[in-house]
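Aggregate trends can hide what the representation actually does to any particular protein. In the encoding step, the backbone of a single protein was reduced to a row of integers, each denoting a local shape. The record that follows shows the chain in one-letter code together with its fold in token form.

***
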Amino acid sequence: MKKVVNILTIAGFMFLGAIQSTYAQDAAAAEGSETFHQILKRYFIEGGPGFMGIVLVALILGLAIAIERIIYLNMATTNTKKLVSSVDEALSSGGVEAAKEVCRNTKGPVASIFYQGLERADEGLDAAEKAVVGYGGVQMGLLEKNISWISLFIALAPMLGFMGTVIGMIGAFDAIAVANDISPAVVAGGIKVALLTTVFGLVVAIILQIFYNYIISKVDSIVNNMEDASISLIDLLAKYKK
């Protein structure tokens, strides 16, 4: 529930920013100069509020989820070499309890995995390794949470744009049938709507795809660090069990 509230809060801030930007653009238009954002807004209106609005909602929600994931992943990033070194020193000086205290004072999934492994250290290396592997899967699920929604919006945005294209072309042919004329003036409006919805859907998909690839690469990096650090923890426990 807390994650949903955070996502909706981010989306609300983005929506308020869009409203403020619209007021600024209207003021610029009143002075006779048309900015890039003003042109974009005009094309958005000409493309039709139906499909263009749905694609815009997909963009806002996708960006909100992407920003929330980026913030979470950055907070989950840990200097694993420093943590392993600290745990090594704690094990040599104060034993398992001192190492657990180090993990409690360190944020991130790697420290949480270390803590779970140290909790089972008294039961043997096999139990500690099983705890590390099991809790590592839980942490991986938390890292990948909601990423599938971004991929959904990436696929949905161009599909909606293409649907708007088809509807715009149908409107163009309807205009030809009504006017009984195939002149460019008759079909230009429908074709323009078709092209605008397609372009807007593709632009939204491209923007979200960039964020998606960054998030995936960040998750892979954290997971690799988790796996390397987990191996180091088992090696440390084996060393101090001797």
Remarks:
- Residues 83 and 222 are 14 Å apart (CA to CA).
- The chain has eight helices and no strands.
- The longest helix spans residues 184-241.
- The chain has a mean pLDDT of 78.
